[in-house]
């Protein structure tokens, strides 16, 4: 089996400079969804028909091993498949997919392949209430398909047909090559219709089977931002449903967005309005509070992430507490039992077991040992305007509130830093280090009084 994906359409109604098929569903270009589904079928050949000026499309899918066929002018779906012909073998079948129909399911395509055994033609059709805009499936008295008629070419009677052509079809290659050569554009739209091969198949005695998708949305196409948003919601509800089936508790399955791969353990609870991007792993019994964004991160068992936290490219150990309002930036590696509180930002730092940074702090380029307590408002001054420098805080150290740790600097094991210190040099083991002006009081001091005006 070979596969052709039609992706040359302009997408005028998107009102966007981005080619239509690159608009994203669940964070991935629509075309990427279709390519991934096609690839799972392991086709002999995959050919993507792209449009004039679609170099952006090729670049966006540069990692895919496939053939690219340029369709300079969009002269119709038949013409588009013609562009792919040189890439297609003489035997076997070709599955035609659309780059702007992203939610087609593997199981449906598999059914088409099964129905196509023995070089049959297979059409994916659907019965709909409103067939406006679609090609209609015309059958004879014995219910055999005899043609597809486009709406603009249809008679009044044909327009009443509710069985529509979804556009996805499986075509036997040995006929395809000569059928496409015989297409004409003598029709209402002046286009080369791929659908005209159906009539040719009937004339050549090729059997035509039809398959229906389990869900109508599988064949919904995107021509506007409205339709893009509709498919996004449908897809997200599907993903949420899959999570529920796996035993995740979603406080509202309509308010979660998964833009990547989410791996979850047992008894995970996810509150509303969370966004998961890239590859995220949540261990057993992890709880994620509302309005949290987690991207490319691993959160180990029993950890709680409270509301409004933002985690990216980070690892959090077991039994930890993050947030609310915490920010873990790339390279934040937390051991187990760590507490990161509100308005704390951690970047490229290791934080040892049981350590706490609970309030209003910035920790960047730091190595923090075990059992360390970092007081409120502590800042690792890691940047001198040119270079980044490291801060080391060894096991059991206690950093008083409001401290500035000017890197490079080491706070040794068990050291205590007095609140409000600006630490620029080594703070020795087990000692109290203070670096601040001594407090003075002036007993005879008077508050200034208001000047008297006569
Ligand atoms: C086509 C079918 C119609 C079916 C409908 C389903 C034909 C003649 N008609 O309609 O029976 O009900 O799809 O949506 O096939 N494309 C190209 N190059 C072209 C033309 C189209 O790559 O020259 C691509 C489009 O980007 C799109 C797909 O083919 O992905 C379908 O094109 P579109 O114009 O949306 O469909 P219709 O031709 O109106
Ligand atoms: Ca068209």
Bound molecules: uridine-diphosphate-N-acetylglucosamine, calcium ion
**Poorly predicted parts:** none
Q: Report helical residue fraction.
A: 10-25%
CATH class of the largest domain: Alpha Beta
Count helical runs.
8
CATH superfamily of the largest domain, by name, is Spore Coat Polysaccharide Biosynthesis Protein SpsA, Chain A
Task: Assign the structural class, choosing from mainly alpha, mainly beta, alpha/beta, alpha+beta, or little secondary structure.
Answer: alpha/beta
The major beta sheet can be summarized as: 13 strands, parallel
What's the domain count?
3
Radius of gyration, CA atoms, in whole angstroms = 32 Å
Cα(first) to Cα(last) distance is 101 Å
What fraction of residues sit in β-strands? 25-35%
